[in-house]
């Protein structure tokens, strides 16, 4: 049905001016509802529909510009005196005071003031109103919260071109300052405009470094002198050692001469314990460990070439990446090498060959961090490739404890100075792991993502709560660890000592077993050699070697299978046979076979 | 006048009191038992602090006014009584 309204206009009236006039409303069309049409429709069931008429808002985060604040002090001078009275003149001030005492309001107020003050004073004398009511009661054991760590501050590299933070060192006196060494360790990636400076930051002020250190070549590592907190020594990219005194400004006080320094970047430098407090030693990938006296940096006082064959041959030397020195054991030190070996050395050995005491074959890649446990100096931690390992000095073949292979490369680690069972590791994916080996050994207790880029250096402050880690983009993040991970727990030392002993013992037993097997093999091979003494040894023919290797292999496998069968029979026969007896039986069986 | 003297003497002689300073409306110390530099320092600082405390109290309730301010520190307690723009500062070492 169409609703249409028609109106007409004459053609001659088109375009004429409109003359508007008021007119009452006129009903043109009124269509009433037709009930019959309702039968075409079905009424739908009721349904609830929610409608909201609210204001549209959106959330947006904005980071404001960094607010640079500077603190400075103001010196107060006596003031408030009226203009005509000179405050330094005793007479005038006394006269003024006497006059003020005669003032009306003065006389009225003082009794009031006096009574109030006296009341409070007497209160104080009677009872300590600020006393802690429950002080001295036993501390309630708090329910253990999950371990956590909080970022306190981030110190960013102020330069345009960001460099990696390769070395960190806390100020020895209270740890309010942090020295960071910046350099670019990527091969030939250091651009020309890269700044050479390294900075000392004040922990409270992340906006600006407190002091800039300007070396001639970027610093790879640095260390504060534990005896004299004003002096620092640093190792630079070109192999020189640089010595600073913070009281004398940013320029180095002394530089070592280029001819006598390292030929590769100095990866680690540590101060030594000495009477003069001026000795340091440094290690570099050119295979040398050099000792320096900072008063005379023109030449190293001592030199050690890390040659595993103990001949002092620089060509065969292993490149050193990390150093370890513990003040309680001043004659020993350890070096971690690029090849994955940890070399333990004795400084006081008479001949250079005796300097290298022993080596520990640990990792598949460079040993990036090496540190003794501050509570158990016989055990040390090494980090390299994708694992962290704990070693005992006595066991040279393998580590006593080892973490799982992690998802990314581990770059640095250190023990907590307060808790013997806690250590921290850094990974290339920007994660900081806190391991508590008394709590859990398979996984880190706390895993934090510090930043998106790789983390390169780590240092824990002496109180164990603050941890500084440096990243590839030049950011040093300061984290505070929760109190559980930084306070000594009950029995921790004894439990950890027991754990280390247990693991050491296990390794010893395994080592002994290995040795026995080797001995047996040797005795067997000696006997077989006696038989073959007439035969010519065609050592140079690879095919023959392969054939022989195959033969040996199959013989061994068969021998092992037979041995296992015999062992099972033995076990079935005698239930309480001790290990030694078994071993003897096996040896006999082996000997029977050989003969 | 004598009453004033007596009041002040009583306070100064109280147990544990280290020093007393009386400051007028302009911040000038009228009477003091401490040496000049300490007096000046206390007067300046506590004047400013009590003004701030006073404005705080009055901001919350304009009819209210600050009468007494107590600062307890590790070493001693500083009590400031306010009346008519005069300040009476008493430094006491509370012995428990």
From TrEMBL, chain A:
GO molecular function terms attached to this record: dynein heavy chain binding; dynein light chain binding
Residue span of region Disordered: 520-552, 564-595
Gene Ontology cellular-component annotations: microtubule; outer dynein arm
UniProt cross-references to Pfam families, sorted A to Z: WD40 (PF00400)
Keyword check for Glycosyltransferase: no
Protein name in the entry: Dynein, axonemal, intermediate chain 2b
Residues in the signal sequence: none
């Amino acid at each position: 049905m169409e609703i249409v309204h028609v109106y007409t206009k004459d053609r001659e009236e088109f375009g004429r001016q409109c003359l508007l006039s008021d007119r009452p409303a006129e009903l043109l069309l009124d269509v009433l509802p037709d009930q019959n049409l309702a039968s075409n429709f079905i009424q739908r069931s009721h349904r609830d529909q929610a409608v909201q008429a609210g204001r549209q808002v959106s959330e947006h985060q904005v980071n404001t510009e960094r607010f640079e604040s500077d603190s400075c002090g103001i010196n107060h001078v006596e003031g408030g005196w009226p203009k005509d009275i000179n405050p330094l003149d005793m007479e005038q001030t006394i006269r003024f005071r006497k006059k003020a005492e005669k003032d009306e309001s003065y006389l009225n107020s003082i009794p009031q003031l006096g009574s109030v003050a006296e009341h409070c004073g007497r209160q104080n004398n009677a009872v300590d109103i600020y006393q802690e009511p429950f002080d001295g009661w036993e501390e309630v054991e708090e329910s253990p919260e999950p371990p956590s760590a909080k970022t306190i501050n981030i110190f960013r590299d102020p330069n345009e071109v960001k460099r990696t933070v390769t070395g960190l060192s806390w100020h020895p006196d209270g740890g309010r300052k942090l020295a960071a060494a910046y350099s670019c360790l990527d091969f030939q990636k250091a651009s020309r405009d890269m700044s050479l400076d390294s900075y000392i930051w004040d922990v409270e002020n992340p906006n600006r470094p407190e002091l800039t250190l300007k070396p001639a070549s970027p610093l790879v590592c640095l260390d504060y002198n534990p005896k004299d907190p004003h002096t620092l020594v640093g190792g630079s990219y070109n192999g020189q050692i640089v010595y600073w005194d913070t009281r004398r400004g940013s320029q180095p006080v002394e530089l070592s001469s280029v001819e006598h320094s390292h030929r590769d970047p100095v990866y680690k430098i540590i101060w030594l314990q000495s009477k003069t407090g001026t000795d340091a030693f440094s290690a570099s990938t050119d295979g040398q460990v050099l000792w320096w006296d900072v008063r005379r940096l023109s030449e190293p006082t001592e030199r050690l070439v890390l040659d595993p064959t103990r001949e002092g041959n620089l060509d065969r030397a292993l490149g050193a990446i990390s150093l370890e020195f513990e003040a309680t054991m001043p004659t020993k030190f350890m070096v971690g090498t690029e090849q994955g070996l940890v070399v333990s050395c004795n400084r006081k050995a008479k001949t250079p060959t005796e300097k290298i005491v022993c080596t520990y074959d640990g990792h598949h890649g460079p040993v990036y961090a090496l540190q003794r446990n501050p509570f158990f100096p016989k055990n040390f931690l090494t980090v390299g490739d994708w694992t962290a390992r704990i070693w005992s000095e006595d066991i040279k073949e393998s580590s006593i404890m080892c973490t799982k292979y992690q998802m990314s490369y581990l770059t640095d680690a250190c023990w907590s100075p307060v808790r013997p069972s806690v250590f921290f590791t850094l990974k290339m994916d920007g994660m900081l792991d806190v391991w508590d080996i008394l709590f859990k050994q398979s996984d880190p207790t706390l895993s934090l993502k510090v930043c998106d880029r790789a983390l390169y250096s780590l240092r824990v402050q002496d109180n164990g709560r603050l941890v500084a880690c440096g990243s590839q983009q030049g950011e040093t993040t300061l984290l505070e660890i929760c109190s559980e991970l930084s306070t000594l727990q009950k029995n921790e030392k004894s439990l950890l000592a027991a754990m280390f002993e247990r693991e050491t013992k296990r390794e010893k037993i395994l080592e002994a077993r290995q040795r026995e097997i080797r001995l047996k093999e040797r005795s067997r091979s000696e006997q077989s050699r006696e038989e073959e003494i007439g035969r010519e040894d065609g050592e140079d023919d690879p095919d023959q070697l392969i054939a022989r290797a195959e033969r040996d292999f199959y013989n061994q496998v068969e021998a092992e299978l037979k041995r296992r069968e015999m062992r099972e029979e033995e076990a079935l026969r005698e239930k309480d046979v001790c290990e030694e007896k078994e071993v003897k039986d096996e040896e006999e069986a082996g000997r029977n076979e050989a003969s | 006048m004598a009453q004033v003297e007596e009041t002040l003497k009583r306070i100064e002689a109280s147990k544990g009191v280290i020093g007393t300073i009386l400051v007028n409306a302009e911040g000038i110390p009228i009477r003091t038992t401490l040496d000049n530099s300490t007096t000046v320092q206390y007067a300046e600082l506590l004047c400013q602090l009590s003004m701030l405390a006073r404005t705080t109290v009055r901001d919350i309730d304009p009819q209210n006014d600050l009468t007494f301010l107590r600062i307890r520190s590790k070493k001693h307690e500083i009590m400031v009584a306010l009346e008519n723009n005069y300040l009476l500062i008493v430094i006491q070492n509370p012995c428990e």
